[in-house]
Amino acid sequence: MHTLSPGELSILLVEPSDTQRKIISSRLTHEGICNIQAAKSISEAMEIIARHQPDLVASAMHFDDGTALDLLKQLKQADEYRDIQFMLVSSECRREQLEVFRQSGVVSILPKPFSSEHLGKALNATIDLLSQDELDLAHFDVHNLRVLVVDDSKMARNIIRRTISNLGLQLITEATDGEQAIEIMKQNMFDLVITDYNMPSVDGLALTQFIRNDSQQSHIPILMVSSEANDTHLSNVSLAGVNALCDKPFEPQLVKQLLYQLLDE
Fold it and tell me: Could you tell me the pTM of the whole model?
Protein backbone atom coordinates (compact mmCIF):
# COMPACT_ATOMS: atom_id res chain seq x y z
CA MET A 1 0.00 0.00 0.00
CA HIS A 2 1.04 3.59 -0.56
CA THR A 3 3.02 5.14 2.26
CA LEU A 4 3.11 8.91 2.58
CA SER A 5 6.35 10.82 2.37
CA PRO A 6 7.06 13.91 4.53
CA GLY A 7 6.60 16.09 1.46
CA GLU A 8 2.98 14.96 1.19
CA LEU A 9 2.07 16.00 4.73
CA SER A 10 -0.03 19.08 5.33
CA ILE A 11 0.87 20.80 8.61
CA LEU A 12 -0.74 23.63 10.54
CA LEU A 13 1.74 25.33 12.87
CA VAL A 14 0.01 27.16 15.75
CA GLU A 15 2.54 29.40 17.49
CA PRO A 16 2.03 32.92 18.94
CA SER A 17 5.66 33.97 18.58
CA ASP A 18 6.73 35.29 15.17
CA THR A 19 10.31 34.21 15.85
CA GLN A 20 9.34 30.69 16.90
CA ARG A 21 7.04 30.30 13.88
CA LYS A 22 9.92 31.17 11.56
CA ILE A 23 12.31 28.80 13.34
CA ILE A 24 9.90 25.86 13.41
CA SER A 25 8.73 26.47 9.84
CA SER A 26 12.36 26.44 8.71
CA ARG A 27 12.96 23.15 10.51
CA LEU A 28 9.86 21.62 8.91
CA THR A 29 10.97 22.78 5.48
CA HIS A 30 14.38 21.24 6.10
CA GLU A 31 12.61 17.91 6.77
CA GLY A 32 10.93 18.12 3.37
CA ILE A 33 7.57 19.56 4.44
CA CYS A 34 6.24 21.86 1.73
CA ASN A 35 2.62 22.41 2.78
CA ILE A 36 2.81 24.51 5.95
CA GLN A 37 0.11 26.87 7.21
CA ALA A 38 0.53 29.04 10.29
CA ALA A 39 -1.74 30.55 12.95
CA LYS A 40 -1.07 32.78 15.96
CA SER A 41 -4.09 31.81 18.04
CA ILE A 42 -6.61 29.04 18.64
CA SER A 43 -9.40 30.96 16.91
CA GLU A 44 -7.26 31.58 13.84
CA ALA A 45 -6.23 27.92 13.82
CA MET A 46 -9.86 26.74 13.87
CA GLU A 47 -10.73 29.09 11.02
CA ILE A 48 -7.92 27.63 8.92
CA ILE A 49 -8.89 24.06 9.80
CA ALA A 50 -12.50 24.74 8.79
CA ARG A 51 -11.28 25.79 5.34
CA HIS A 52 -8.58 23.17 4.83
CA GLN A 53 -7.96 20.28 7.18
CA PRO A 54 -4.27 19.54 7.77
CA ASP A 55 -2.84 16.11 8.44
CA LEU A 56 -1.06 17.38 11.54
CA VAL A 57 -1.41 20.31 13.95
CA ALA A 58 1.87 21.32 15.61
CA SER A 59 0.93 23.55 18.53
CA ALA A 60 2.64 25.62 21.20
CA MET A 61 1.27 25.40 24.74
CA HIS A 62 -0.06 28.90 25.55
CA PHE A 63 -2.07 31.48 23.58
CA ASP A 64 -3.97 34.65 24.39
CA ASP A 65 -7.24 32.81 23.78
CA GLY A 66 -6.46 29.54 25.55
CA THR A 67 -4.05 26.63 25.68
CA ALA A 68 -3.02 23.75 23.45
CA LEU A 69 -5.34 21.54 25.49
CA ASP A 70 -8.31 23.73 24.52
CA LEU A 71 -7.36 23.37 20.85
CA LEU A 72 -6.86 19.63 21.18
CA LYS A 73 -10.27 19.20 22.82
CA GLN A 74 -11.99 21.16 20.05
CA LEU A 75 -10.41 18.89 17.46
CA LYS A 76 -11.12 15.62 19.26
CA GLN A 77 -14.72 16.52 20.05
CA ALA A 78 -15.61 17.23 16.41
CA ASP A 79 -16.19 14.12 14.29
CA GLU A 80 -14.99 15.85 11.14
CA TYR A 81 -11.64 16.69 12.74
CA ARG A 82 -10.88 13.56 14.76
CA ASP A 83 -8.45 12.17 12.17
CA ILE A 84 -6.22 15.24 12.41
CA GLN A 85 -3.06 14.32 14.33
CA PHE A 86 -1.76 16.62 17.08
CA MET A 87 1.80 17.38 18.15
CA LEU A 88 2.70 19.56 21.12
CA VAL A 89 5.79 21.76 20.79
CA SER A 90 6.62 23.23 24.17
CA SER A 91 9.38 24.13 26.60
CA GLU A 92 7.17 22.74 29.39
CA CYS A 93 8.99 19.88 31.12
CA ARG A 94 6.87 19.26 34.22
CA ARG A 95 5.49 15.76 33.91
CA GLU A 96 2.18 16.61 35.57
CA GLN A 97 1.54 19.34 32.99
CA LEU A 98 2.33 17.03 30.07
CA GLU A 99 0.47 13.98 31.38
CA VAL A 100 -2.92 15.12 30.07
CA PHE A 101 -1.45 15.35 26.55
CA ARG A 102 0.09 11.90 26.83
CA GLN A 103 -3.29 10.53 27.89
CA SER A 104 -5.08 12.35 25.06
CA GLY A 105 -3.39 10.47 22.26
CA VAL A 106 -1.08 13.14 20.86
CA VAL A 107 1.29 11.84 18.22
CA SER A 108 4.32 13.42 19.87
CA ILE A 109 5.51 15.91 22.48
CA LEU A 110 8.45 17.92 21.16
CA PRO A 111 10.64 19.92 23.54
CA LYS A 112 11.82 23.43 22.78
CA PRO A 113 14.41 23.47 21.37
CA PHE A 114 14.06 20.15 19.55
CA SER A 115 16.57 18.20 17.49
CA SER A 116 16.20 16.94 13.92
CA GLU A 117 15.93 13.45 15.39
CA HIS A 118 12.99 14.50 17.59
CA LEU A 119 11.21 16.14 14.67
CA GLY A 120 11.86 13.30 12.26
CA LYS A 121 10.52 10.78 14.75
CA ALA A 122 7.33 12.81 15.25
CA LEU A 123 6.77 13.20 11.50
CA ASN A 124 7.33 9.49 10.93
CA ALA A 125 4.79 8.67 13.65
CA THR A 126 2.27 10.92 11.89
CA ILE A 127 2.95 9.21 8.57
CA ASP A 128 2.51 5.79 10.19
CA LEU A 129 -0.87 6.83 11.61
CA LEU A 130 -2.04 8.03 8.20
CA SER A 131 -0.74 5.02 6.27
CA GLN A 132 -1.77 1.36 6.20
CA ASP A 133 0.90 -1.29 6.64
CA GLU A 134 -0.57 -4.65 7.60
CA LEU A 135 1.26 -7.12 9.80
CA ASP A 136 2.36 -10.25 7.93
CA LEU A 137 2.25 -12.89 10.64
CA ALA A 138 3.45 -16.46 10.24
CA HIS A 139 1.04 -18.03 12.75
CA PHE A 140 -2.06 -15.81 12.57
CA ASP A 141 -4.37 -14.21 10.05
CA VAL A 142 -4.10 -10.63 11.27
CA HIS A 143 -7.73 -9.95 10.28
CA ASN A 144 -8.95 -12.63 12.69
CA LEU A 145 -6.99 -11.52 15.75
CA ARG A 146 -9.28 -10.59 18.64
CA VAL A 147 -7.93 -7.59 20.53
CA LEU A 148 -9.12 -6.02 23.77
CA VAL A 149 -8.08 -2.35 24.19
CA VAL A 150 -8.36 -1.03 27.76
CA ASP A 151 -7.95 2.67 28.56
CA ASP A 152 -10.05 5.16 30.51
CA SER A 153 -9.31 7.89 27.93
CA LYS A 154 -11.54 7.75 24.86
CA MET A 155 -8.99 9.78 22.90
CA ALA A 156 -6.23 7.36 23.83
CA ARG A 157 -8.41 4.40 22.82
CA ASN A 158 -9.11 6.08 19.50
CA ILE A 159 -5.45 6.49 18.64
CA ILE A 160 -4.66 2.90 19.72
CA ARG A 161 -7.57 1.64 17.61
CA ARG A 162 -6.42 3.65 14.61
CA THR A 163 -2.83 2.48 14.96
CA ILE A 164 -3.64 -1.21 15.16
CA SER A 165 -6.37 -0.93 12.49
CA ASN A 166 -3.73 0.39 10.11
CA LEU A 167 -1.75 -2.76 10.90
CA GLY A 168 -4.70 -4.88 9.76
CA LEU A 169 -6.33 -5.75 13.10
CA GLN A 170 -10.10 -5.53 12.71
CA LEU A 171 -11.71 -7.38 15.63
CA ILE A 172 -11.24 -4.74 18.32
CA THR A 173 -13.21 -4.55 21.57
CA GLU A 174 -12.85 -1.56 23.92
CA ALA A 175 -13.07 -1.32 27.71
CA THR A 176 -13.00 1.91 29.72
CA ASP A 177 -11.07 0.44 32.67
CA GLY A 178 -9.79 -2.78 34.14
CA GLU A 179 -13.05 -3.58 35.88
CA GLN A 180 -15.01 -3.51 32.63
CA ALA A 181 -12.21 -5.44 30.89
CA ILE A 182 -12.47 -8.25 33.46
CA GLU A 183 -16.22 -8.57 32.89
CA ILE A 184 -15.72 -8.63 29.12
CA MET A 185 -13.00 -11.27 29.39
CA LYS A 186 -15.24 -13.50 31.47
CA GLN A 187 -17.58 -13.72 28.47
CA ASN A 188 -15.19 -13.47 25.50
CA MET A 189 -11.87 -14.90 24.33
CA PHE A 190 -9.09 -12.70 22.98
CA ASP A 191 -5.71 -13.12 21.29
CA LEU A 192 -4.16 -9.91 22.62
CA VAL A 193 -4.77 -7.35 25.38
CA ILE A 194 -3.51 -3.77 25.05
CA THR A 195 -4.01 -1.92 28.31
CA ASP A 196 -3.19 1.40 29.93
CA TYR A 197 -1.42 1.38 33.30
CA ASN A 198 -3.15 4.29 35.11
CA MET A 199 -6.89 3.69 35.33
CA PRO A 200 -9.53 4.21 38.03
CA SER A 201 -11.06 1.31 39.94
CA VAL A 202 -8.95 -1.50 38.48
CA ASP A 203 -5.64 -0.39 36.96
CA GLY A 204 -3.40 -2.14 34.46
CA LEU A 205 -1.44 -3.97 37.15
CA ALA A 206 -4.57 -5.40 38.76
CA LEU A 207 -5.96 -6.36 35.34
CA THR A 208 -2.73 -8.17 34.50
CA GLN A 209 -2.81 -10.01 37.81
CA PHE A 210 -6.41 -11.11 37.13
CA ILE A 211 -5.53 -12.35 33.64
CA ARG A 212 -2.47 -14.29 34.81
CA ASN A 213 -3.91 -15.73 38.03
CA ASP A 214 -7.71 -15.90 37.81
CA SER A 215 -8.80 -15.99 34.17
CA GLN A 216 -9.21 -18.74 31.58
CA GLN A 217 -6.84 -16.79 29.31
CA SER A 218 -3.73 -16.77 31.46
CA HIS A 219 -1.30 -17.12 28.55
CA ILE A 220 -2.66 -14.27 26.43
CA PRO A 221 -0.03 -11.67 25.37
CA ILE A 222 -0.38 -8.36 27.21
CA LEU A 223 0.99 -5.08 25.86
CA MET A 224 0.90 -2.31 28.45
CA VAL A 225 0.85 1.34 27.39
CA SER A 226 2.11 3.67 30.09
CA SER A 227 3.39 7.19 30.60
CA GLU A 228 4.50 6.07 34.08
CA ALA A 229 8.19 6.78 34.70
CA ASN A 230 8.36 5.18 38.13
CA ASP A 231 10.77 2.25 37.89
CA THR A 232 9.06 0.48 40.78
CA HIS A 233 5.70 0.54 38.99
CA LEU A 234 7.23 -0.73 35.76
CA SER A 235 9.06 -3.47 37.63
CA ASN A 236 5.79 -4.51 39.29
CA VAL A 237 3.91 -4.86 36.02
CA SER A 238 6.77 -6.82 34.49
CA LEU A 239 6.77 -9.21 37.42
CA ALA A 240 2.98 -9.50 37.17
CA GLY A 241 3.30 -10.88 33.66
CA VAL A 242 3.14 -8.04 31.13
CA ASN A 243 4.84 -9.20 27.93
CA ALA A 244 5.80 -5.78 26.58
CA LEU A 245 5.71 -2.12 27.62
CA CYS A 246 5.09 0.83 25.33
CA ASP A 247 5.35 4.49 26.28
CA LYS A 248 2.83 7.23 25.58
CA PRO A 249 2.61 8.85 23.07
CA PHE A 250 1.81 5.63 21.19
CA GLU A 251 4.48 5.15 18.47
CA PRO A 252 3.16 3.06 15.54
CA GLN A 253 6.51 1.61 14.41
CA LEU A 254 7.40 0.50 17.93
CA VAL A 255 3.94 -1.00 18.35
CA LYS A 256 4.38 -2.89 15.09
CA GLN A 257 7.72 -4.30 16.28
CA LEU A 258 6.24 -5.29 19.63
CA LEU A 259 3.26 -7.02 18.03
CA TYR A 260 5.58 -9.05 15.82
CA GLN A 261 7.47 -10.09 18.94
CA LEU A 262 4.30 -10.98 20.85
CA LEU A 263 2.39 -12.74 18.09
CA ASP A 264 5.01 -14.22 15.77
CA GLU A 265 7.37 -15.87 18.26
Answer: 0.71
